[in-house]
Structure formats: C-alpha cells, structure tokens
Amino acid sequence: MTDHAAPAKCPQCDKPVDPKYRPFCSKRCADLDLGKWLNEEYVLPGNAPVEGIDPGDREA
C-alpha cells in the first residue's frame, strides 16, 4: 500500500504546478499573483494603524 500525494495545483487557475514556476503553473499565473500584491489586493492580517502615528517614527 502506497500513499501518493495529490499533485499540487496552481493557486490562480487550479492547473498542475510546473516546477519552473512553483507554486504556479506558468509565468502568466505568477505575474497575475504579483500584480495582485502590487495593487494591494492581498492584505495581511494585523492591527489597524493608529491615527496620528507615523510608522517611520518608531524607535529601534
């Protein structure tokens, strides 16, 4: 009895992953994902920014 993992699927289109573009199936899907990051369509969870405080003013 052998257990085989299901082939990884591209998070953009669900096609099988191409190792060259992992975790995507193609350059197109990788570029679509990058575009979403650059257009701020993805958001990482965290605390809301506090009004009146500049994040660049934090002490090291």
What do these coordinates show?
The protein is an all-alpha fold and 60 residues long. It has a domain at 8-41: Erythroid Transcription Factor GATA-1, subunit A (Erythroid Transcription Factor GATA-1, Chain A, 2-Layer Sandwich). It has one helix spanning 27-38. It is elongated, with a radius of gyration of 19 Å. The mean pLDDT is 87. Keywords: Metal-binding, Zinc. Interacts with GyrB. This is DNA gyrase inhibitor YacG.
Helix content: 10-25%
| Major beta-sheet overview | none
CATH level 3 topology of the domain at 8-41: Erythroid Transcription Factor GATA-1, Chain A
Distance between the termini: 56 Å
Helix and strand string, N-terminal first? H
- Name of the CATH architecture of the domain at 8-41: 2-Layer Sandwich
- CATH hierarchy class name of the domain at 8-41: Alpha Beta
